[in-house]
Design a protein that fits this description.
homodimer, Hypothetical Oxidoreductase Yiak, Chain: A, domain 1, 3 domains, two-stranded antiparallel sheet, 43% helix, globular
Chain lengths: 362, 362
């Protein structure tokens, strides 16, 4: 698919103006933009600026409340539960992780759960905040149901990413992975390209593995049967019950602990924002010398990168390296935007009366 | 393969006598036996009484020290690091989880890391202890290297299970899964049966997926190249990098945080016990009403079990159900023991001068 490249700075200015046009403050607009564009920098196109249309839709029909007043509904020195009251996901997620970090710095650990929120972008943005404070950061979110349980054919769990960040040198460890085999975004990409799905990604309404991307997407949208398989695939042979269990842990630590609904009761077309997240920060000084732990972990990551490669595989990565390299590339070359996304940006700009010139250049 | 069935009580008496013969106290012998036989009850044969030969070997050659004096080397109100000083894994793991539970009951959370330990049996035994105290329990352990990183062909990470337990009604949620596609035990079973490995379980020394169970086991034993693949399989198409990342998280929270070596520096043939574990207990009252959270989680588990089944799949499980059902079966029918394991038990009994009659009956 043809791509155009827009300078990161120009796209930043543009997105900030769009968010300001809804009534978000300059600071809030900057933060939402940073989360969005960090996804593009990391090479996670599905969670980047191509989501602007979804946010535009959710903000204009009132699922996201621009002036939402989130409130802490339960708190201890180690923990808090926040009711986001339909706030923009990125804004409340940033606040919640800051609170977890403050608690970890004061008490050793901070566990914060959030309910009644919206889509918050990439989980890894928030865990990286903790690692920049020299803490272990953990974040998860539930989403509307998209994953079938093992032996099931009805989507009952979300994409349910698990993210964990730990400081390391020269590159932090930034793990951020959906507990499905793949995200819905990757299925959409293959669908647009007219390609079949690889075996083991998704099932049809009977529960049979299917290569038909269009069918899977239709079923998800229409809340029909079928869905994306858990990490490990269909049945138990290759560990599908493990991915299912990890997704269930995500529901436990987000929806259940926050007092919000689980994935199977969420709907993106409802007016009510009911997504739940969790944000944990752990001071790893709880286990002794931080310098020693950080250096032994950095050494291990290097040993992994230096270990013997499989034939025809040029390189072994540790998690976070690809993201850093892609960020450098994006800063040099611009953000790759496909034509459909570009058209959406133009449409939103017209609706919001925002000047397109910053993204028309280049 | 032919199996004989031994009454659970008889096998309990037998194992206890064996462990007492090495010099463990009655109480210690009972505990080790309980961990071992819980694996058999749960249907995890690989971690049950068939491991007795391995323990016998490790105890008699001094890798496990019967009179080891473990010591707490670092402690805060929320955390501790324990040097096991080559203790029997089950004994120090029980102590460590009890300490984590005590800290969680006093302070809301308890994070305990252990180094210089031995194989500790099933991770799920210890997380269940926490759930029996109405806490969330988490446990992980590293093991000698058996898993290759994505794009690698050298085993650099352990089987590295992640276990999490949460109280629920009528059945607790007991998740306990290796971050490899499968455990070495399952490959051994297929090898004994002369069967090929399913596609996507393991790779040879070049990094190519192989169905040859014997080759994979030989490579592991001889520390040659090749190994078992991470959950998600080879490459990134079906999420192999996710299983690899989860295993890395396990190394971080065990070996790195405990101040012990990572999997690639562990060897079961060395005289020095250097396995690391972690034990976390979290009072989920940190998030508000425990009764509400427990009941909403129980309801969700029931919704999963009741959701639409794939064609020809009679049932959807939640994690912990199969284990409970298998326990009832074992209590009624006895522990299934294959002939090879039975011969090993007889050999150990002769060496330790323990009467075989309890396991010869039935």
């Amino acid at each position: 698919m043809k791509k155009r490249y827009i300078k990161l700075n120009n796209l930043t200015v543009f997105c900030r103006q769009i968010f300001q046009s809804y009534g978000f403050s300059t600071e809030q607009s900057e933060l939402i933009t940073q989360v969005l564009l960090t996804a593009d920098c990391f090479g996670i196109e599905s969670h980047g600026v191509q989501r602007l249309m979804r946010y535009h839709d959710e903000i204009t029909r009132g699922m996201v409340l621009v002036n939402a007043q989130a409130e802490i509904v339960y708190e201890t020195p180690l923990s808090a539960v926040i009711d986001a009251n339909q706030a923009m996901g990125q804004l409340i997620a940033d606040k919640a992780m800051r609170l977890a970090i403050r608690k970890a710095e004061n008490s050793g650990i901070g566990l914060v759960a959030v309910r009644n929120s919206n889509h918050y972008g990439i989980a890894g943005y928030y865990t990286r905040m903790a690692s920049e404070h020299d803490l272990i950061g953990i974040s998860m979110t539930n989403t509307e149901a998209i994953m079938v349980p093992t032996f099931g054919c009805q989507a009952m769990l979300g994409t349910n990413p698990i993210a964990l960040a730990m400081p390391a040198d020269p590159v932090p460890f930034l793990f951020d992975a959906a507990t499905t085999v793949v995200t819905r975004g990757k299925i959409e990409v293959l669908h647009k390209q007219g390609k079949d799905l690889p075996v083991g990604w998704a099932i049809d309404g009977q529960g049979d593995v299917t290569p038909d991307a269009g069918l899977v997407l239709d079923n998800i949208i229409q809340k029909g049967k079928g869905g994306i398989l858990p990490l490990g695939g269909a049945g138990e042979t290759n560990g599908g019950h493990k991915g299912y269990g990890l997704a269930l842990i995500c529901e436990l630590l987000t929806g259940i602990m926050a007092g919000g609904p689980t994935a199977n009761h969420l709907s993106s077309v409802a007016q009510q924002a009911q997504t739940s997240h969790c944000f944990w920060a752990v001071d790893y000084g709880l286990f002794g010398s931080k310098a020693e732990r950080r250096s032994s972990f950095s050494r291990y990551l290097q040993e992994l990168r230096d270990s013997a490669r499989a034939l025809d595989c040029p390189r072994i990565y540790t998690h976070g390296e690809k993201e850093l390299e892609n960020s450098r590339k994006v800063e040099a070359e611009g953000v790759p935007i496909n034509e459909k996304t570009y058209e959406e940006l133009c449409l939103i700009a017209r609706e919001r009366a925002v000047d397109l010139c910053s993204i028309q250049l280049q």
